[in-house]
Specification:
Layout: H1 5-27, H2 33-41, H3 45-52, H4 65-72, H5 76-89, H6 91-101, H7 118-141
């Protein structure tokens, strides 16, 4: 595939297609899904808005796809519908995702109790994620 204007246009169209699907699928989920995604991805709700809005050129980082599928409980049909334009937009990243899904990494869930103060619960979740990322980075240095 060439890197000319036509290829760029096809890629941009594919990005718009998967972002549109992602937004539609997330909009069907219960209230609070965007916040849960932001926490799971270690980011802010504004980032979720950017990766689900076709008007923004910010692509969805491939490392977040599996987490989004899990948090949003995407049905197999939704996963397939999403992955088709995602593969078209990012063929190399999609290949890496397929390799990863065959046993590369895994998602670990940690139950956080409900606190009376939702802000405290959020801080606990963010702290756990930050510590986990540091541990993973330290472990990766040995590879």
């Amino acid at each position: 595939m060439s890197d000319g204007p036509d290829a760029r246009s096809r890629t941009e169209q594919a990005v718009v297609a998967y972002k549109t699907l992602l937004r539609e699928f997330i909009d069907r989920r219960p209230s609070g899904t965007r916040q849960r995604l932001a926490v799971a991805l270690g980011t802010h709700k504004s980032f979720i808005s950017q990766i689900t809005n076709p008007a923004y050129r910010i692509p969805l980082p491939a490392q977040h796809v599996a987490t989004i599928f899990k948090i949003c409980h995407f049905a197999p049909e939704e996963r397939s519908a999403f992955m088709e334009p995602f593969r078209a937009a990012h063929p190399n990243q999609a290949k890496a995702l397929e390799v990863e899904s065959r046993g590369g990494s895994r998602i670990l869930e940690i139950e956080i109790p409900s606190f009376q103060d939702p802000a405290r619960q959020e801080r606990v979740a963010e702290t756990i994620q930050a510590v986990a990322k540091r541990i993973i980075a330290l472990a990766a240095e040995g590879n």
